[in-house]
Amino acid sequence: MKRLAPFALLGLLAAPVQAFDLTDMTEAERDTFRDEVRTYLLDNPEVIMEAVSVLEARNASAQETDDLALVRDNADAIFEDGFSWVGGNPDGDVTVVEFLDYRCGYCRKAFDEVMELVSSDGNIRLVVKEFPILGQASLDSSRFAIATYKVAGGEAYELMHEALMDYNGATDPAALSRLASGLGLDPEPIVAALEDSAIDADIRENHELATKLKINGTPTFVFEDQLIRGYVPLDAMQQIVSDQREG
Description:
Blueprint: H1 6-14, H2 27-43, H3 46-73, H4 75-79, E1 85-88, E2 94-100, H5 105-121, E3 124-130, H6 136-152, H7 154-166, H8 173-182, H9 187-193, H10 197-212, E4 220-223, E5 226-229, H11 234-246
Parallel strand pairs: 2-3
Antiparallel strand pairs: 1-3, 2-4, 4-5
């Protein structure tokens, strides 16, 4: 069987559809063509990797475009929901939003880096979205953190938020009350506030927003108009913030 030279095969593949129609080929010609394509790819496997890279780039570009639209369409709920804790500089020129779960290992890994980003920069507005997805302990922790915020305010929430990022104990009200006491907080009104239906409403809103944004894991970040699913190291976060400022 005569073998097509690689450049001839590429020319055949690049030909207009009307000039190359598999339906017009005989079965023998079709088998020959398949053999040539297979031989070419086996001899030049880098072509497959190039094709995969092109596909991944196209998919990433499409995802980025889709994410930009998702953030734009849900901006009020993302940045100004009226119930999520806001830290850092409330008047900062860049807003960073984090969806997190207290029992998420990568959220814990990111915590110190997020705090370093905010404190070292000085001009970042941080919004924390309580997004418990890893079971009852996660839900208990988020509910207690939100109750702390509602009862004792932002500074108390920040203390509880930081403590829960390191906490691995039981999450029943008695155990979390001991944690609160150790932080110098009065646990009784916090435990009482756990009966407030607004706590579950806040968490439900965050879950509904996450569904709209196609978020199914933690941590997930929104840097202004950029949605990033997964852990981001400090140097990468700093670069993203810099890029956002440069516009």
